[in-house]
Amino acid sequence: MNKIFRKCYYFAKPFIPRSVQLDLRRRMARLERLRNRNTWPIDECTSDPPLGWVGWPDGKRFALILTHDVDTAQGQDKCVALARMEEALGLRSSFNFVPRRYQVSSSLREYLAEKGFEVGVHGLYHDGKYFNSRKEWSKRVVQINRYLKEWLAVGYRTPSMHHMLDWFHDLNIEYDASTFDTDPFEPYPDSAKTIFPFWVHKEPYKNSGYLELPYTLAQDFTLFVLFQEKTTELWKKKLDWIVQKGGMALINTHPDYMNFNGERLAREEYASELYKEFLEYVIGNYNREVWHVLPREVCTFWKTWRHSDLYSANLAKAES
């Protein structure tokens, strides 16, 4: 989706019925899926580890990071049910809220923090206008940084995965999660082409910047709403491949689209049991091999690794 088309789309979007938007997106997604069948959901070119890579902590085979974007107030109302599902399985995740789209509950943020979950900032609005101009971005940065500070958050993700990685240096963050290893269905389809985190330097300072965490498992909206998949086989297939490559399995789901009550599914809903079944698959098959942590904990590990003597030695060896 080029820049002009993106601007036109987001200008017209409020006037297009949601059912029409969804139908158009499904048609476009089917074409893109066919066109990118050799690089989605698995792109073999994304599996090379970083230079100087020493592996995940404690000899774990791969990393598992769970994240959720809470796009609407209705999604916010489902967060406790989602957190309890994960907690019952011994898992924790990050919840990213949109501060100016709905009234973000302070009691919910406190509840999640007390239970060991993480809270992140998911843009400011959900309007697709973040990078129309540097001037507009600068205005939003001030407010986004205020919410980061108020919420004690260290992570950020732009709505709809819009990203300008150089611009994100204006944010007071330790990590961003607005990219992906491969996903041709997003407005900014340029992929990070890696299933590992990577450091985004702020030139000319080599040690400054932030960690980028691309999601490596397809978004739930893509699988269950756009393609109307009935199983989690695509998730499982991709996960097994990531495990083989020793990468990072980072998933981004939305409570907005989950149905927790077992009633008839709405147009843009899927049964929450699908997500639970996938998590049970991970635990059942890889419990001893997985390093499951929150995004902020990946940052701590990455910074320690990048400043280690072993990293420097391995990096020098790899570059020689």
Features:
alpha/beta, 320 residues, TIM Barrel, 11 helices, globular, 4-stranded mixed beta sheet, 5-stranded parallel beta sheet
Describe the structure.
The protein has 320 residues and is α/β, with parallel strands linked by helices. The protein has a single domain, classed as TIM Barrel (Alpha-Beta Barrel), CATH 3.20.20.370. The protein has eleven helices and eleven strands. It has helices at 3-12, 18-35, 73-76, 79-88, 106-114, 134-150, 220-226, 233-245, 272-286, 295-306, 309-319, and strands spanning 62-70, 94-97, 118-121, 155-156, 175-176, 198-202, 205-212, 248-253, 258-259, 270-271, 290-292. The strands form three sheets. Strands 1, 2, 3, 8 and 11 form a five-stranded parallel beta sheet that branches. The longest helix has 18 residues, at 18-35. The mean pLDDT is 92.
Radius of gyration: 19 Å
Broad CATH class? Alpha Beta
Structural class: alpha/beta
Enumerate how many helices there are, as a single number: 11
Distance between the termini: 40 Å
Which sheet architecture does the biggest sheet show?
5 strands, parallel
Give the fraction of residues assigned to helices: 25-40%
Low-confidence stretches at least 5 residues in length (pLDDT < 50)?
none
User: What's the β-strand tally?
Assistant: 11
What is the CATH superfamily classification?
Glycoside hydrolase/deacetylase
What is the typical, i.e. mean, pLDDT?
92
What's the helix-strand series? Answer: HHEHHEHEHEEEEHHEEEHEHH
